[in-house]
Design a protein that fits this description.
The protein folds into two domains: 2-127, no CATH class; 147-186, no CATH class. With 196 residues, it is mainly α. The termini are far apart. It has helices at residues 2-7, 11-18, 23-40, 44-60, 71-79, 93-112, 149-158, 162-174, 178-182. Helix 3 packs antiparallel against helix 4.
């Protein structure tokens, strides 16, 4: 339990780690997370996602150690997310496949070359020639998913908070991401004066 406290892993992820039968893999995951924190300074959410994916990967292969994994093991795990055209018409599984491939790629680079600088680590043979899948759609969103002017007016009419109304309209006018808007300071905002 001491490892969990030093890493400050959220309780749901602690429970996920405890489900891994292979204690060697659990220690490798904890060691990797410690290294990841120093290499890229990930958010807590990113750490949780990486841990949960690696736990799923371990449980998919039972008691097999990471070092004994073969290329086919990685491919079988990634292919388990593939869905038929009928079940997933918008091909959302491709996003999961590509994200998990990135997590596994970074993990196996560290596993096989821990002493090499993170950006200079080569791709190990176990994950060689496994590439991302291109999406079939340019965007998973349809024009009907976006709000139009009438939707904005309806929201502004019934929203009780002036603060929420302001945030909504600034986000619509600037097209900024929420994180970009939340980092703004008053000095960052410059009002244009319209002279006739």
């Amino acid at each position: 339990m001491k490892d969990y406290v030093t890493l400050k892993i959220p309780p749901p992820t602690q429970n996920t780690l405890s489900l891994i039968r292979n204690k060697h893999n659990t220690s490798k995951i904890l060691e990797y997370i410690n290294v990841l924190k120093t290499e890229i300074n990930p958010s807590d959410n990113h750490i949780q996602n990486v841990i949960e994916m690696l736990c799923r990967f371990c449980n998919f292969h039972g008691d097999k150690n990471f070092e004994n994994m073969k290329r086919t093991d990685i491919i079988n795990f990634l292919e388990s997310f593939r869905k038929s055209e009928i079940k997933d018409q918008q091909h959302r599984w491709i996003g999961t496949y590509n994200l998990f491939l990135q997590y596994l790629l970074r993990f196996f680079k560290w596993l096989y070359f821990p002493l090499i600088e993170q950006k200079k680590r080569p791709r190990p043979d176990v994950i060689q020639n496994i590439t991302q899948i291109k999406r079939k759609e340019k965007s998973i969103y349809k024009p009907t998913d976006l709000w139009n002017c009438e939707d904005d007016l309806l929201f502004l009419k019934y929203c009780p908070s002036k603060r929420d109304k302001c945030y909504h309209m600034i986000s619509r006018d600037t097209a900024c991401r929420p994180s970009e808007l939340l980092k703004l300071r008053i000095k960052d905002i410059v009002f244009k004066s319209f002279e006739d």
